[in-house]
Every structure is written in structure tokens, then in C-alpha cells.
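User: I've been going back and forth on whether these two constructs are worth ordering. Before I decide, could you fold them both?

Assistant: Sure. I'll take them in the order you sent them. The first construct and its C-alpha cells:
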Amino acid sequence: MARSIFLFAQWFIARRRTWLRILTWITRFGYWLFILYGLVEWFRPRPVPAQIKRRKTLVYCLFSVIMGSSLSWIIGKIWHRPRPFACGDAAPLVPHKANASFPSNHSMNSLAISLMLLARHNLWGLPALVWTGILASSRVLSGLHYVSDVVGGFFIGAVASHVVYHSKRCSQLAGHILYYWHVGASVAQTWWRRC
């Protein structure tokens, strides 16, 4: 029954050119919204205490993505699960190479970022969480992942986010990174003004 619903949804989207374009864009480029958000937040001017807090949140998000991606890479080396279109279980609505399907890295990383934003009391955490759901759904509907790939990615992303958030080592490392960033930025500004 679930497979019939899935195949009907794929058939419906493939027949509607506008829906297919939207699905393709979200599936292929949806994660870029997280990168764009990070760049805007990093360079947006604001009072120094607020800027340091926001940048520390972004460094935590980066640590979560690195940890989750490392786990995903290890899992991919141990167990290579073929993608649904490679097994003939679904038609690929979006072109993709036939690498390991489990876990969904897009879902994993976007959930890790969303949960970190929520844990650090950032107002963009909730919209990011909604976007994560949309992105994960698009990966399944486009035939690139099984639902279990997305659920596995969510689990790994949540664990990575939790570990980074509660790690004193990550907090210290984030503090060091921000300290050297601000010192380097101050030196660069001083040098630029003298030239």
C-alpha cells in the first residue's frame, strides 16, 4: 500500500512540470540555504556580544556537520546500501550518481544544524527544522533515498548535534577559533587602513 502511494506521488510529480522543477530544485540545491544562512549570519554586523554568540552557534553547527559527516563516511565504507533507483525500486526524478544511500547526508546535516540552532536559542531554528522536513521529503520523493535512509540520517544528525552541544572540548575549541578570528580580523583591518 505504501509503495503504491509512493509510486503514485512520483508519477503525479513527474507529470506536472512545475512540481518537478520545484522538487528538483529543493533536492539538488536546498541545502545551500543552510550555507547561505551561515554566511549571512557570520558577516552581518551587530553588537560584539551578540555577534560572538551567533558566531559560536555557527561554529557549533559546523562541528555537528563534521561529526555527522565523519560517521556517515565510516558507515558508507562498512555498508554500501544501493540507492532506490539503482535497485529499480523507484525512478530517479533527479539525476544522481549511484553511491551509498544510507544515511541521507542532506537530512543528517540539515537536522544537526536545525537542532543546534534550537539548542542555542536561535530564532531561525524552527524555520530550519521545517526546511529540513521539506528537504528530507524531497530526497525520498525524488527516488534518491529510502525513508529509512532519512530516518538514519536524522538519528546521526541528532546524536552529532547533542554530542557537540554538551562537549566542553568543542566549546573550548569554538572559543579559540573565534578568538583567533577576531584577532586576525582586527589585524587585517588595521593593516588595510594603513595602506
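The second construct, handled the same way:
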Amino acid sequence: MYVIIIIAVLAFGYWVYKNSKRNAVINEFCQAAEEGDADAQFEMGVLYQYGRGVRQNLFEAVSLYCKAAEQGHIGAQSNLGVLYTLGLGIPRDYSQALYWFTKAANQGNAFAQNNLCRLYSFGEGVPQNYVTAYMWLELAINGLEGAEKEKAEMNRDRFLTSHMNSEEIERAKKMAVEWRASHKH
């Protein structure tokens, strides 16, 4: 019986310790975000978006992502694109999604490039354009790993190519090469 009580007390103590550490980190991020630190704004945006350590608040996540994105934070730009695409915490707005995905994609963010492929593939906020979609996906594939990369390759090889002729595929590949040459990081 005493062993169970000791284990319960130790478990509770560990839980209190772990939560106090987490709260201290969140407080540090929160203060840095309020002081204008883009990385902290992004991290707090993620916490609010998913409700990790804080109550989920998509409006606060959007606000923090906007602040970080305006400062050029690539992750915040990409996440804003996702939220605008899905209409989470803000009204769905494909033109804003396109804007933020493009900003992040032009800085080499593979997830934003992959999402631009989706917008162009389905004509969401832009005229449907398989050549441009293929170009963005070709660029994204270089930055993706594992299952995400395999899924993107399958999308390119099975879906996009089924809507394109060989000349369009070659043009898209050429566009990707030209983009890489003009966007060396």
C-alpha cells in the first residue's frame, strides 16, 4: 500500500515539474513574441493552432503567424497559406493562400511549393495550370523526405503527367531548372 502511495506522489511530483518547465518555456516564447521575435511568434502560433500547452485559439495563431510572416518567417508564411486554404481561423481566401505560399516557396520552402502545386492543379485561386503545378512539385520533391516525397512523386507521375503531353512536361522541367538557377540559396 505504501509503495502505491509513494509511486503516486512521485508521479504527481514529476507531472508538476514537467508542467512547470513547459509553462516556463511557453512564458519565454510569449514574452519574446510580444517583443517582436519572429521565431517566437511562429512557435506561439503553432502552439495556439494545435492547442499545445495553451488553449487552442486559431484567431491568435493567425495573428501571430501574420506578425512573423510579415518579418519574412518562412514557416509562418507557409502556415498562413494553409490556414487561408482551409479557412481555419480566417475566411477561406485562395488569393491570400497563393500570396503566402509564393513568398515561402520563393525562399525554398518545399511544403509551400507542394501546396502551390495543389492550387495550380485544381485551379484554386488561380487558373488551372498543370505546367506550373508540375514545376512547383518538381521543386518541392527536392526538399521533401520520406513518405511526403513519395506521395509528391506519385502525384507527379500518376496525376499530373496524365493531364500533360511530353512537350508540357519538358517545359515544366525547364521552368524548374530556371527557377533553381535564379533562386540559389
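Notes on the second construct follow. The CA atoms of residues 58 and 99 lie 20 Å apart. The domain at 1-107 is CATH 1.25.40.10 (Serine Threonine Protein Phosphatase 5, Tetratricopeptide repeat).
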